[in-house]
Design a protein that fits this description.
Number of helices: 4
Distance between the termini: 44 Å
Largest sheet: none
Number of domains: 1
Structural class: mainly alpha
Order of helices and strands: HHHH
Length: about 100
Amino acid sequence: MMQHYWICLAIMAGSTYLLRAVPFALVRKKIQNTFIRSFLHYIPYAVLTAMTVPAIFYAVDAPLAAAAGFVIALILASLKQGLTVVALAACGTVYVTSLILAYF
């Protein structure tokens, strides 16, 4: 079991290192192509969204509470509120909604 852990860790470390080191080794000059620059600019946001949104709905036992928190977070983010405000309001909404749903 422990050997399996170290093998998985080595594979993950190697793939992460290669994904970060190979572009530095291959690309020496500034990328001029606007499509590629735009694509590379939005990759972190796309990956973060792909990892975060499913986790929102599986983090609590009540999917309705998770959806309420997600909607509040979307509304506050679209109103240009800070990350702390959005996160606290979303967590508070999930908590209160979970309490309300527990009585029904």
